[in-house]
Description:
Blueprint: H1 3-36, H2 46-71
Amino acid sequence: MTPEEREQLARVRYGIITILRASGAVLMLIGLWIWLGDILREGGWPAVGLPLFIAGFFESLVVPQILARQWRTPPGR
């Protein structure tokens, strides 16, 4: 693999991780809004908002770490 190809791959992977973090944060906000706000029904709707919040949390904080660990270059290379 040439240095240019490695750099392009690193840019793509960085973009994927950035998009995951941003979309997870948006999903957390939407879940919080549904959970505590009056958007879907008066007084909030925890049964819908809480799972969305948890999914966004997982997508924003856990999945990028798993991908980064999987994509990490071994120390010998």
